[in-house]
Write a structure and sequence with these properties.
Elements (H helix, E strand, L loop, with lengths): L14 E13 L3 E7 L4 E7 L5 H9 L5 E10 L7 E12 L13 H6 L1 H4 L3 H23 L3 E2 L5 E2 L11 E4 L2 E5 L4 H11 L1 E9 L12 E10 L3 H22 L1 H6 L4 H5 L7 E3 H10 L13 H8 L6 E4 L12 E2 L2 E5 L1 E6 L4 E9 L3 H10 L8 H5 L8 E7 H9 L20
Helix pairs in contact: 4-6, 4-13
Length: 430
């Protein structure tokens, strides 16, 4: 009977066949241990010389790392294994022998591993991170589907920029200028006026020449947009959503979190509501902590966000940023013209901003004024302005960066390991 590693718990005591790769092996005179992986998980196969034909034992001893095989054996429970099961091997059939596999069990440098990313993905820790990423995606769809959102797919090629063109990849769209999208937000606002509550999930691009552990050139964003939702309503959705995906990973990725040595107790306490601090108070806090390099009107850098986050063991909202450092579309504070109704959600443990969100301007005249102040061409935003002409309503939304969120939940230091094939400042291969 053919099965997969993740399904062996259904076949305890039965003989099964698994198509797998040899992740590692070790052997003594009379027994061989095969570390098998099939994409669904990892399991140990035990080959006892006295219990199998000589050809099977010799195949088990000589098989090389990453050789593909069909392994047949009896499924046994094994309390010593984190997975809980092992395979008493009765047969080994080599499909394709791998020769001189470049990533051995020894330590390798980061650049070498990144050059071999197509192979590094096979390792146990990288596999665990990708499974956690998959769970975050699965839970995202569950959360928004269960809460009445419709998924809408905004275009990747756009003729306008939500946050200016300075960090966009420009291209030619026949005889017009076009850009790779840095956000689907403007289109999601149009979708919200048609469908009420919507979300998108797709790639975004930032031509930002940054080499920090928090930045990618191409990354994935989840961007909900909600009609009739004001600033406070928006924050509630954010904290409910983040709590939901974290607890889904805690529940469904126990084995993967264990492989990564993640402190699960830090994740288990992530439950809404989240603490909040205003931008004003954050500046005062930082100055009191000795950060003399920042003053009111400056944006926060990674050290500032980390210092604020260290005061909490939960994600924290920083609210009401100065108008001058935020995009044109954010709704002004009703009682102050120097700040806007926005918030960034900062993850604990030094992982920085994972969400940026705001209430959007819904007044036509004010939005037109903002576009002019930012020197944005009116023709390119004509359709966006028209959303404020025909039944405009208060509305809000946010964007969650998938890779930063996965890095935080999995405890991975660098976002380059939170995406299958990262695009970095100096990396377009593989």
């Amino acid at each position: 009977m053919k099965t997969t590693i993740i399904e062996v718990h259904k076949h305890v005591g039965e003989e099964v066949t698994i198509g797998a790769w040899i992740a590692n092996k070790r052997s003594s005179g009379k027994i061989a241990f095969l570390q098998l992986r099939d994409g669904s998980g990892f399991i140990q196969g035990v080959v006892v010389k006295a219990e199998v034909e000589e050809s099977v034992f010799q195949a088990a001893k000589s098989v090389t790392q990453e050789t593909s095989v069909y392994v047949t054996g009896i499924v046994r429970e094994d309390e010593r294994s984190p997975f809980g099961y092992e395979l008493g091997v009765t047969g080994v059939e080599v499909i394709h022998e791998a020769v001189d596999y470049p990533i051995t069990p020894k330590n390798h440098g980061t650049e070498f591993l990144m050059d071999n990313r197509h192979l590094w993905l096979r390792s146990k820790k990288q596999h665990a991170i990708m499974k956690i990423r998959n769970e975050v995606i699965r839970a995202t769809y569950e959360f928004f589907n269960d809460n009445g959102f419709s998924k809408v797919d905004p275009p990747i090629l756009t003729g306008s920029a939500p946050e200016g063109t300075s960090e966009l990849f420009a291209t030619k769209y026949f005889d017009e200028d076009a850009y790779l999208s840095q956000s689907g937000q403007l289109y999601m606002e149009a979708a919200a006026m048609a469908l009420g509550k919507v979300f998108s999930f797709g790639p975004t691009f930032r031509a930002e020449k940054s080499k920090t552990r928090r930045h990618l050139i191409e990354f994935w964003m989840i961007e909900p947009e909600m009609a009739f939702y004001e600033f406070e309503d928006n924050l509630v959705v954010q904290e409910q959503y983040v709590s939901f995906i974290v607890q889904s990973v805690v529940k469904n990725c126990k084995l993967e979190l264990g492989i990564l040595d993640r402190d699960v107790s830090k994740l288990e306490k992530i439950q809404s509501p989240f603490p909040r601090i205003s931008y004003d108070d954050a500046i005062k806090f930082l100055n009191e902590k000795g950060f003399d390099d920042i003053q009111w009107g400056d944006d926060f850098g990674a050290p500032h966000e980390t210092a604020i986050a260290e005061s909490y063991d939960m994600p924290v909202f920083i609210t009401h940023y100065p108008t001058g450092i935020k995009p044109f579309y954010m709704q002004p504070h009703p009682e102050r013209d120097d700040v806007v109704l926005c918030a960034d959600l900062i993850a604990p443990e030094g992982y920085g901003e994972i969400i940026g969100g705001s209430e959007r301007i819904h007044d036509y005249d004010l939005l037109k004024q903002r576009l002019e102040e930012h020197n944005l061409e009116s023709d390119a935003y004509k359709w966006y302005l028209e959303l404020r002409q025909y039944g405009s309503v208060p509305h809000s939304g946010f964007g969650l960066g998938l890779e930063r969120t996965v890095a935080w939940i999995s405890g991975t230091e660098h976002v380059r390991e939170a995406i299958p094939f990262p695009r970095l400042l100096n990396r377009l291969y593989p």
